[in-house]
Every structure is written in structure tokens, then in C-alpha cells.
Design the sequence.
């Protein structure tokens, strides 16, 4: 099964599980137009150091020390689409990246004080979305979506420190800190297939 098919299955389940008015708000949000200009292949990303979920800080320099880095920007641990994607990447992508001297890291705006994710690669907290904003990935949550999320029990003010999210994205950074692959998904139900990441490498 492709990642896309699995994510569609999650969305179909939520369609039946959530109140219709809530699901309609979220569906409208995933199909909204965005005029944002995202970072392009060839651009350079500034070095950064972010705290890990385990409390250990990790820099971009650390991630590209032995080869390219695959950076996965995601919305947070509360997002079922993100959790499925990260588990899929661990199972299908991580061994292939290790064989290619490439590293994998996940980055979200979530504060580093939540439960430790059950993942075998760094999970970093970009609180304030500094790194994500530099790539054009950060955006404010609209009032209807904010109300819907609060109804479902997700208060981003507590989880992230701000009502701001990031577009899910995968970027590949080489050892010169240049972007060699950029794939952004304003439709948060979709994600980058592992095969496409390997092809980019």
C-alpha cells in the first residue's frame, strides 16, 4: 500500500468519526489556496540548532556531517496523518537512508515537553517556526479551524505556544546546506512518498 492510500484511509475514517460540521471545516482548510512562495531547490538553508524531544540539541551541521539530510516538517504529534507518515518513513525509508549515509530528522513547531515519540530518528522542536518560516512553510491558523481544533481538544497555544502551523514538507539538504529536493503539501492529508525521497537522493 502506498502512503497516499494509507493516508486516504485515515481521512475516510475521520470522516465517519468526527462531527460533520467539524470535518467540513477541516476539509475546507486542506483545500484552501495558498499564495506562499516556498523555498526552491538550489537555495541554501542557514545552520540551526533545535532541541530534540529527548532534550538533546541537534544542529543542521550534525545532520549533514556524514552525508545529506532528509528533513521532514510536520504539524505535531496530535496530527494522525503526521504520525502515520513518520512511522512509514521509519519503516520504509530509514534503513535505505542509513545505507546511503543520509540522515532523517523530523521537525515540528511543537514544544519539546510532550511525550517522547516512539521513533528511531531525531524529532526536533522548531518552537516559533523559525526554521520553517525561513522556508516559507509557516502560516497562521484561521479562526474556523482554530475553533474546530479547540472543540476536538487540541489547543495549539498550549502545544506550540502559538496558533501557527507548518505545511507538511520534505526537503533534502546536502553537505553544503543547499536544498536539493523540496516537496511541500498545503493539503495536509497528502505527503511525500518514500520512493520519491529515495529518487531525489
Sequence:
Amino acid at each position: 500500500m502506498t502512503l497516499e492510500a494509507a493516508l486516504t484511509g485515515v481521512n475516510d475514517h475521520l470522516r465517519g468519526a468526527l462531527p460533520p460540521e467539524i470535518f467540513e471545516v477541516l476539509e475546507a482548510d486542506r483545500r484552501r489556496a495558498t499564495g506562499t512562495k516556498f523555498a526552491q531547490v538550489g537555495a541554501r538553508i542557514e545552520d540551526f540548532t533545535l532541541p530534540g524531544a529527548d532534550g538533546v540539541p541537534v544542529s543542521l551541521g550534525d545532520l549533514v556531517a556524514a552525508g545529506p539530510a532528509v528533513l521532514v516538517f510536520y504539524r505535531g504529534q496530535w496530527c494522525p496523518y503526521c504520525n502515520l507518515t513518520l512511522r512509514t518513513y521509519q519503516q520504509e525509508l530509514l534503513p535505505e537512508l542509513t545505507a546511503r549515509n543520509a540522515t532523517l530528522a523530523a521537525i515540528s513547531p511543537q514544544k519539546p515537553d510532550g511525550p517522547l515519540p516512539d521513533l528511531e530518528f531525531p524529532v526536533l522542536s522548531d518552537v516559533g517556526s523559525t526554521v520553517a518560516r525561513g522556508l516559507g512553510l509557516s502560516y497562521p491558523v484561521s479562526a474556523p479551524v482554530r475553533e474546530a481544533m479547540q472543540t476536538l481538544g487540541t489547543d495549539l497555544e498550549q502545544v506550540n505556544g502559538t496558533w501557527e502551523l507548518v505545511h507538511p514538507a520534505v526537503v533534502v539538504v546536502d553537505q553544503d546546506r543547499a536544498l536539493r529536493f523540496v516537496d511541500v503539501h498545503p493539503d495536509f492529508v497528502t505527503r511525500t512518498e518514500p520512493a520519491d525521497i529515495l529518487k531525489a537522493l
In short: The mean pLDDT is 93. Residues 3-200 form a domain with the Glutaredoxin fold (CATH 3.40.30.10).
